[in-house]
Structure formats: structure tokens, C-alpha cells
Design goal:
Helix content: 55-70%
Mean pLDDT: 79
Order of helices and strands: HHHHHH
Number of helices: 6
Structural class: mainly alpha
Strand content: under 5%
Number of strands: 0
Low-confidence stretches: 69-79
Distance between the termini: 23 Å
Length: 79
């Protein structure tokens, strides 16, 4: 899940940069991003591709239990 990826691949400085970039990109509250990053809630699927780009990983690495990865990517690109 995103929380595990967030903690495992990013340094503390990079975490702050990622948080700030997500806030600007998605125009959501700090608590929303925090909840996503700590696994309390899951971001909407239409954000998954953009989140993967921000993290520099694939959607399947962030959301390994997801079956519809190609559908998610298509939906995100359509926005």
C-alpha cells in the first residue's frame, strides 16, 4: 500500500517534498494527504497514476492488490 511505499523508499527530506507536491497537485487538505500516506484512507483511483509519477514508481508498486491497473491509468489520463 502507499503507506509502506512512502516509508520505505523516501528519505525524511524527500517525504516533505512529496507531501507538498501532492498538496499542490491534488488541491486537497493536509489531513487528506496525511491520511493517504499513513494508510488511514486510500486515495481515489483517478489519482493513482499521478501519485505513482510523484513517487517515481509504478501503480502496481503502490497498490499491489489492485486488479484494474490499466483501467486506473486510462481513467487518470482522461482527467
Amino acid at each position: 500500500m502507499i503507506a509502506q511505499t512512502f516509508k520505505s523508499i523516501l528519505s525524511k527530506k524527500k517525504r516533505t517534498e512529496i507531501r507538498e507536491r501532492m498538496l499542490r497537485t491534488f488541491e486537497v487538505s493536509q489531513s487528506t494527504v496525511r491520511n493517504w500516506l499513513y494508510g488511514r484512507t486510500t486515495p481515489p483511483q483517478y489519482y493513482w497514476s499521478a501519485i505513482a509519477v510523484i513517487f517515481g514508481v509504478s501503480v502496481s508498486e503502490l497498490f499491489p492488490d489492485t486488479d484494474n491497473k490499466s483501467e486506473v491509468i486510462t481513467n487518470a489520463q482522461a482527467k
